């Protein structure tokens, strides 16, 4: 019969528990991220009154006022419209700068 060191008896279950906990947390974060993305899509769609896939100044002011405050900064192609892609780039840059 093989003798197992007492530290191994504690360490192995602890590592397994930590791994399971991290997996569960990662899964929850993904769900949360998914919910946030879905809510953002819904808000964008509701703000896009003419359904052209972008937001003009008035649409942004009315439906997404925080974005409207940074309209010129977000509108990188200077077409006076905010595309989803421009908004995503802006939000990623803001997140990275924190």
From TrEMBL:
Gene3D superfamilies: EF-hand
Record's keyword annotation contains Cytoplasm: no
The EF-hand domain, residue ranges: 35-70
Listed GO MF terms: calcium ion binding
Domain of life: Bacteria
Signal sequence bounds: 1-26
InterPro entries per the UniProt record, alphabetical: EF-hand-dom_pair (IPR011992), EF_Hand_1_Ca_BS (IPR018247), EF_hand_dom (IPR002048)
Name this polypeptide is given: EF-hand domain-containing protein
Keywords, comma-separated and alphabetical: Signal
Lineage: Bacteria, Pseudomonadati, Pseudomonadota, Gammaproteobacteria, Lysobacterales
């Amino acid at each position: 019969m093989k003798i197992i060191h007492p530290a191994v008896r504690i360490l192995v279950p602890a590592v397994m528990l930590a791994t399971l906990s991290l997996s569960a947390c990662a899964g929850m974060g993904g769900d949360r991220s998914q919910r946030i993305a879905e809510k953002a899509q819904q808000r964008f769609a509701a703000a896009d009154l003419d359904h052209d896939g972008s937001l003009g100044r008035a649409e942004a002011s009315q439906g997404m006022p925080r974005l409207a405050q940074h309209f010129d900064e977000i509108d990188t192609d200077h077409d006076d419209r905010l595309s989803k892609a421009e908004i995503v780039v802006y939000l990623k840059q803001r997140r990275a700068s924190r």
